[in-house]
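input
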Amino acid sequence: MRPGLMQRNGRNWQGNGAAFRPLKPTTLRKDGGATLEVDRNRFQDGDMVLFQDRKERRYLTTLAEGQVFHSHLGRLNHDGLIGHSVGGWYRTDRGHTLLAVRPTLGDFVRQMPRGPQIIYPKDLGNIVAFADIFPGATVIESGLGSGALTTALLRAVGEQGHVITYEIEESVVPRALANINKVMPSPPNLTITLGDIYQGIEERQVDRVVLDVPEPWQAVAGAAEALVMGGILVSFLPTILQVHQLVGQLHEDGRFQMIETVETLLRPWHVTERSVRPAHRMVAHSGFLTTAVRCLPRVVGTASNPAPLPSGEPLTPPDRGNDKES
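output
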């Protein structure tokens, strides 16, 4: 299937194939067939903006000509920002000053419309890093949710990569696509397949499988069939009992090694001229991240009679009780 398609029961829907807008000082944008030079140092119509007031409260909006930003601090015309400096200070009609910058993906994820439980920025970053999501990778994802993880994966694989998302609930797709499109309009390298990943993965020779589903152990066999040798499976789960069952299934399958589970705790610090202390609140437990590497099944041998390398798959995993650790 070509990137940029959504599949349902053999039918496909194609997006408009809008290109990514790289964050360069000056970039080119096509408008009505014409190529325009756009200054990335200035806000453009359609850009997302993050405002911060003097108490460090933050507000997210999308610029549109003729529109007005409303808050308890007053009103601010969008036209007063379009064509003006990113990182500038802007005054509302009530005299309050707001700093205006471009939001990071983390800023957007924290404030985006959501339905299912989202994966927070501290975990999104670790998923991309620990799973080694690289430019040009083909990634299978399951659990579209509100689109936060999908957006992070799309940014990591770049224009030459491909993200294929399996989602069983069609009702979550419109909201997720709306969120994704705010960050990267209709990415051509996203394919949404309406189906149950527990029933298997159609694709083969993929680089990564990312599971944000309640019973990922049901997808272990399918992930093993889909991944390239050395490919990585990563799963995000809220409870340690789920992790325990997943890790048990990974061992039982025999085609995954280097199985690791981590938890990320994020503690902000309050640093001023006169004091340095931890913040009163921290982002503690949100979930567990388990990674595993696709390998050939382990074959037991001895120094005098080494086991031959397997010529095909699958092989029955060895009896671990007879396998002495070195």
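quick obs: Residues 240-253 form the longest helix (14 residues).
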